[in-house]
Amino acid sequence: MSLLPFFKTKEPQASAVNPAIEALLRDYSIEVMPRTAEKVENFRDLLPQGTRVYIAHIEGTPIADMVATARRLAMDGYKVMPHFPARIIKDRATLADWIARYQGEAGVDQALLLAGGVAQPHGDFESSMQLMESGLFGDFKRLHVAGHPEGNRDIDHDGSDTNVMAALRWKQKFSETSDAQMALATQFAFEAGPIIAWADALRDAGITIPVHIGIAGPAKLQTLIKFAIACGVGPSLKVLQKRAMDVTKLLLPYEPTEVVAQLAAHKAANPDFNITHVHFFPLGGIKTNAQWAIDNGGASALPASQR
């Protein structure tokens, strides 16, 4: 059922939306997988036209399914950003084939380049830097790379940020010579304070690539804890664990209102803050996440004819 009438009934209540949150949610992005996208009858009922939609490439997903999802979203008027996980790409010929299919069938001109979650590379590539060095993304308008507000023990086994920061400095230099616009799309976290400290540390280190902060969308608490552990979320996991100990909150769905509000307030007070966008991981479902965004001002990017 279309949600378009819903937008009309909600519009008079726009004054109730926190303006700082609304500003931070402007041009937010969201992530889907082919199998989750199949469950959405009509993305236009949920997401503003022009929303950037990342397509996560999980190991084992056929490239044909990825491209078909990209084509559908592009035809519906969305900016499509497929993942290119280096460690599951066999060789340069495979990478070139994927790019050609995305460009030829879906008009893709932006990508998220990342190492990928598998421990051992399946072929010639191990890192996003090698993908950038391939030269095959030369005509892409936008390239995003991964950021880790709480570190990444797959990269820095000792818990430091030595290797992560070295990689970011390399990517910063690349951004200064590339024609593509770049951004850091980060893993999700649940505490604003450490996120702010991390973003400020990047700026102090000379990393000026804009940050699109990862935020976990509304979900059952048990679901969120499971994903957080699987994705290697760091110290902020204790926010969920503390909530799980409160019987009155255990059965209530988690919503990212608090962390988003705190980040939005900091952004409003510090306009040069390098977190520029929100990127949602819809762990509780695309529809649920999209509705939360709408309720908090994320529908503001919709053309007037669609409100």
Automatic annotation (TrEMBL):
Tell me which UniProt keywords the record has, alphabetically: Oxidoreductase
Molecular functions (GO terms): methylenetetrahydrofolate reductase [NAD(P)H] activity
For this entry, the protein name equals 5,10-methylenetetrahydrofolate reductase
Q: Specify whether Oxidoreductase is a keyword of the entry.
A: yes
Tree of life domain: Bacteria
User: From which organism does this entry originate?
Assistant: Yoonia vestfoldensis
Q: What is its EC number?
A: 1.5.1.20
